[in-house]
Structures are given as structure tokens and as C-alpha cells.
Amino acid sequence: MAGSMIGERIRMLRKGVYTQNDLAAAADISVDVIRKLEQGRRHTASIGTLQRIARALGVDIAALVGPSRPPLSVDDDQARVVAIRDALTSVDDLLGELDGADAPDLAELSRAVTYAWGLYWTGRFEPLAAMLPRLLAEAAAATHDATAPEAGRAADLAAQVHTITAETLVRLDALDLGYVAAREAVRLAEAVSDPLRAAATRSGLGHVLIRQGRFVDAERVYVATAESLQPRGETSTAHLSVYGGVVLGGATAAARQRRAGAATDLLTEATAVAQRTGVDRTDYEIVFGPSSVVMQSTDCAVVTEDYVAAAEMARTMPPGAALPLASRSRHLLDVAHAQLRLGHDRAAESTLLTMERAAPEWTVYQKLPRVLVGELLTRGRPSTRLRELARRLNAPRAPQPS
Fold this sequence. Notes:
By secondary structure, the chain is mainly α. The chain contains 21 helices and two strands.
């Protein structure tokens, strides 16, 4: 990432508001950092430092970082993918060019990772994609420079960065590159000595495999991971939660193979685990609990085209379900799909509008809403609200059946 580009943006944003000294004081950083960035004499800045500058300027960090290179085409998503690819597949370590000054304090890196997860779970993929090249570079520097006492923590954070990267690349339709990131997350987790982190990275890999259409491989990964975590004796709630989430992943993979019996068995196991945890939780960035079981059971019913069961299951969603925004939105998409297939067009329209209103940034990165809206446009006289939604999503009108 060109430091001069960051510096130009900082200078533009602070102009007429802050002097360099004032901005440094507001961000609680050295004014020397601001000067060097603006002058192009500093080519790196940690995510934590950029977060502090962005917060002082009242902007999102994406306003500072942007893509790490000029777009190669008008396709912004492709430019983001290229920037992430370059950071993910960097050869700097082979050339001895990893800059020790690039490595942030691990506490600072941890805060940046937490921030990135927050962007992911709220569906804010554009700023997330913008910060990932820098975050990948920092994670690489941290693992390269970490001494023995901190090596495990650095590897844990780097594994998380690569899992976030994999999930983001999937949203950008870069599935093969997402697989590369997910496999690297699994490799990094091997140095952590935490079986739950290892399981979480394998769960992320399973999701990428599902998106690639490799359902058999995904189920094998999920089931093998679940078997390695099988609760025995006294088990922590976090262990149960991660185990349950992995089992749910296996169910979704089985359902996509139309193996309804296997999916049902895994959902039954997950239901029993959810009864033990009692509440919705997020451990190791795996969301699990009673609400997750309902969500994935609905998904499995939709995938196997049992839309009546899907609608019935969705009605059992606990009130006040503690699901992240991205998960809630995905569930509403399944509900709308079932409603449309059952001929409940107005209900499907209402559900899609609710979903888009709650998570507009998440929605634009999904293909299915456009498909469902396009189909609704052909059924009866579309409402003004539906036409406006179709315009926002750039949804094509589905072809009429011949």
C-alpha cells in the first residue's frame, strides 16, 4: 500500500479542520507519523494507527486505505480481489523483505482483528475488503517476528485474519482464492495449540468448500472435525458451542447433497448440544445456540425443497434471537425463498424488504435476493416498493415460463 496515497487522503480529510499537530493530538499518535505519511516518507502504518486517525477525522478506516493499487478496470470488486491476492500470496518472506517495522504490537493487531470481524458480521464487505491487504501484511510480519512466548498468539491472530479473508473472498466470488486463504488459516492454527481454534479454521474451510460446490469434501471436513471435538466428561460451554457449530456445518453440507437423513441426524445432534448451551453464543467466531439450530434447520429444509417444513421451522425462531446481522439476514433470505415457493408472494416481498432495510450492505453482495426479486416482478402486478427494491439490487426480471 502506497504510503503517499494514505497521506494524500489524510491531508485532504484534515484540510480546514486540523493542523498536523491537532490531528496527532486527537488521534493520540506522534505528529511525526502524520508528517511522514503525508510527505510519502513513510510507506507503512499499522491498522491500529489508521483506526485512530480515522476516528479522529470522523471517517471509516476504508476512507484512508482504499484499494492497495489503482483499479485495473471499472469493476471495483475485481480491484479489491487483486489487492487481497497480492497480499495473500506475497513472496516478501521468501526474499527476506518482511519489514520488522510493519509488525504491530499484538494487542493492537488483536483490536484490528476484532474490528474486522465486526465488519464481517455486519455485512460491511467494502471497508473490510479495503483493510484486508494491510491486515494480511501485518499478520505476516507479526508471525515472522514473534518470539517464543508470543508466537502462539501471533499465529492465532494470523489464522483469524486468513479466515476473515477467506470469507470475504467468497463474498467477492473469488472462490479459489478463498480456498487458498482458508487452507492457510488451517495451517497457521496448527501452531496455536488450541483445538478450538483449529476447529474454527476448519469450519471456515468447510464453508468455502460449500460455496465451491464441493459438498462431499465439506461434509467430510465438518464431520471429521466434529469427531475430533466430541464432548466427553466435563466440557466447557465454548467447546460445546464450537462443536455444535461444526455439526451444523456438516448438516448444511449433507443437505446440499440431498442426503436428508444424514442432515436430520446432524441437526438432531446439534439440537441436543444447543439444549446444553441454553443460549446463543459466539465462540471463536462460530455462532451457535438455539437460534442457530433453527436457522440452519430452515436452510436445510429450503435446500432439500421442503418449503412447508422450512416455513414451519422458521416460525420457531426464539424471540430476541441473538444472531449477528449477517446471520439474521441469511435466515430472512431463506424465509423469503420458502414463502415465494409456497405462493406467499406478498409475504416474501415483505421479508425481502425487511432484510434489505436491516442489512443493505450485506444484501448487495448476495445473488439470491436478486433472483427472488426478479421472479416476484413476473408474478402479478409488482408494487412500487418491489420495483424500487429491484432497482436498488439491479435485479433482472425473471423470464416467463414458456
